[in-house]
């Protein structure tokens, strides 16, 4: 069966599922394009407060769909188009989404899986999950922008170990290195996802989006291609002053009641 990325549930907490039966949810070219389309849609959905990215079944994502590689990997132009258009199109849509994104990771999280997880804000992993990017065994390096995203999330030393040793690290080790925020028993992954997403969804959605824009702007202000937009975002950091949810949060605290951010 062909792979797909599908939107399995909308509303305040949306669920994006990576699905490629028989291939541990390996990403095909079509799946990268679908990932982008879904995240562009969710970015525009003002009712969405949190997004969960999960793999179907017992794996998150085992990497790229290698069966497609002979179609484009051996020509520089087509290889560049794959990484810069298809893969980066999907990853940047996740990374640039203002809605908080939670990765629910079970089983294999390899290559493309690590890249997608690196673009998420919070990572919840089953204790049996494994992480790696053993593409050196396939004879090629990680694309530059993808490597930058992974190194920023896992740390440069860990990125070097994953790429140069083709090391595969378990979830406990990735938790110790700061990549995984929540580590839990396999039977409790969904309960932990529910707890985290419910907590996020109960908070001020405008503040969450503003926090993500600020963190992105702080990162991008040294990037010549993104500097102007980043500085513009930082210059407007206090424009939320008259927002209703700002007033509601302060009023609720003073009145010793739970805020209502509906």
TrEMBL record:
<dbReference type="GO" id="GO:0016829">
    <property type="term" value="F:lyase activity"/>
</dbReference>
<dbReference type="InterPro" id="IPR001753">
    <property type="entry name" value="Enoyl-CoA_hydra/iso"/>
</dbReference>
<dbReference type="InterPro" id="IPR014748">
    <property type="entry name" value="Enoyl-CoA_hydra_C"/>
</dbReference>
<dbReference type="InterPro" id="IPR029045">
    <property type="entry name" value="ClpP/crotonase-like_dom_sf"/>
</dbReference>
<keyword id="KW-0456">Lyase</keyword>
<comment type="similarity">
    <text>Belongs to the enoyl-CoA hydratase/isomerase family.</text>
</comment>
<dbReference type="InterPro" id="IPR018376">
    <property type="entry name" value="Enoyl-CoA_hyd/isom_CS"/>
</dbReference>
<protein>
    <submittedName>
        <fullName>Enoyl-CoA hydratase/isomerase family protein</fullName>
    </submittedName>
</protein>
<dbReference type="GO" id="GO:0006635">
    <property type="term" value="P:fatty acid beta-oxidation"/>
</dbReference>
<dbReference type="Pfam" id="PF00378">
    <property type="entry name" value="ECH_1"/>
</dbReference>
């Amino acid at each position: 069966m062909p792979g797909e990325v599908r939107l399995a549930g909308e509303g305040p907490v949306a669920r994006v599922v990576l699905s490629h039966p028989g291939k541990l949810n390996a990403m095909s070219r079509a799946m990268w394009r679908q990932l982008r389309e879904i995240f562009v849609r969710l970015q525009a959905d003002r009712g969405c407060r949190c997004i969960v990215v999960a793999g179907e079944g017992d794996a998150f994502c085992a990497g790229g769909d290698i069966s497609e590689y002979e179609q484009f990997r051996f020509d520089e132009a087509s290889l560049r188009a794959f990484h810069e258009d298809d893969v980066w199109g999907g990853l940047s849509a996740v990374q640039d989404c203002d809605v908080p994104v939670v990765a629910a990771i079970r089983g294999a999280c390899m290559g493309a899986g690590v890249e997608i997880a690196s673009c998420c804000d919070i990572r919840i992993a089953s204790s049996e999950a494994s992480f790696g990017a053993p593409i050196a065994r396939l004879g090629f390096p990680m694309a530059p922008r993808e490597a930058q995203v992974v190194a920023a999330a896992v740390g440069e030393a860990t990125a070097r170990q994953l790429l140069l040793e083709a090391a595969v690290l378990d979830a406990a080790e990735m938790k110790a290195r700061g990549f995984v925020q929540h580590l839990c028993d396999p039977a409790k992954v969904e309960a932990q996802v529910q707890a985290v997403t419910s907590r996020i969804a109960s908070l001020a959605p405008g503040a969450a989006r503003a926090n993500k824009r600020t963190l992105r702007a702080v990162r991008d202000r040294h990037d010549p291609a993104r500097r102007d937009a980043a500085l513009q975002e930082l210059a407007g950091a206090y424009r939320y002053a008259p927002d209703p949810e700002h007033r509601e949060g302060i009023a609720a605290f003073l009145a010793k009641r739970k805020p209502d951010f509906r």
